[in-house]
Specification:
homodimer; alpha+beta; six-stranded antiparallel sheet; globular
């Protein structure tokens, strides 16, 4: 795949997130892409990301997948809504104001997980993303991310 | 501290959670305790658990702290409500059905974080816990965990 992921456009000094920063060498380095009007991210969990159930993923993993894919989706959606090229300045980087997850089925660790995002609302500095997390045909979790654009002057100062 | 944490009473085969399992050697091994009618957990973040903001924690870390402390609080609250000793059989181990987090301020990585839990409701197999996450005087996040008791026969089979 030669296409750049949403996260590959984040400014360097905002690219150290353990979930999705390309510059966090220990992190999960999630990669999100457009798939039509939706967004998609695939991730192979690590064997030690176990949850309470043997062989299943822990809540923080699932939360991170939905959270990081949600803020990435918000960034891409905002660029698209403004008719701008991904990564053009000023950068559109989002943080999470609110995260809601419903855990519907245990999330296996032994296969690639798929996270999908749908843009529910874009209004001012806020983007709301609805997300699903699936393992094959099994819907493991549903979530909602309310993402807020980081002020331009804050990013410039860092 | 010689007092055992809630997580130290979990059955061995349900003690591999990356967030709170005492048998996950790579994990965070969170420890939760009673503090009167509330519960408390302290955790020193790791330097690589960075979020989008430089020097601040990532969403999955914050979610995991609230999630794991929430299910531990649910377990302890259920034992207490039934007048039973922690760890007595059958084990009372909970999973998360729903998790909601409001991120109120960036969470620093350079100090010990405090997670507190309050039991909002105990009804049948369900326990609802309201949680806060603070760094010193700063309230960084608020959350709600809806936890559900794992069926006894499921635990016995594993």
């Amino acid at each position: 795949m030669t296409e750049k992921a949403f996260q590959d456009y984040y400014p360097d000094n905002f690219s150290h997130c353990y979930g999705c920063g390309r510059l966090n060498k220990d992190g999960m380095q999630l990669k999100s892409y457009w798939d039509g009007a939706e967004t998609v991210c695939h991730f192979q969990p690590r064997a030690n990301q176990t949850g309470g159930f043997p062989g299943m993923g822990y809540g923080g993993l699932i939360a991170s997948l939905i959270d990081c894919h949600g803020t990435a989706t918000a960034s891409a959606a905002k660029y698209r809504a403004e008719g701008r090229e991904m990564g053009s300045n000023p950068p559109l980087r989002f943080v999470t104001a609110s995260l809601k997850i419903d855990f519907l089925a245990p999330t296996p660790l032994d296969q690639v997980l798929e996270v999908r995002g749908k843009i529910t609302e874009i209004k001012g500095r806020k983007v709301i993303v609805a997300a699903t997390l699936s393992a094959g045909e099994t819907l493991c979790a549903k979530g909602e991310v309310i993402a807020v654009l980081i002020p331009e002057n804050y990013m410039a100062e860092k």
